[in-house]
Amino acid sequence: MIISARGSAVLVAVAATVLVGCSASPGDDAAPSSAAWQAADDGSVDADADLASFELDVDGYWLEPPNGEGTGALEMSVASLAPGNVEDDFDPTDCFPLYLASSLSTVDDGGAFAGDIRVEHGWVLPEGLDIEAVWADPERSAAELITRGFATAELPVQMVQGALDAAGACDAYVETHDTGDGGEVVIRWSGTAATVLATEELAGEAVRIDRTVDSQVLPGLGEEELDEPLTTYLYAYGPYLFCLQISGPADDALAASVFLGLEEHVSGVPA
Question: How would DSSP label each residue in 202-227?
Answer without folding.
Answer: SSS-EEEEEEEEEEEEETTTEEEEEE
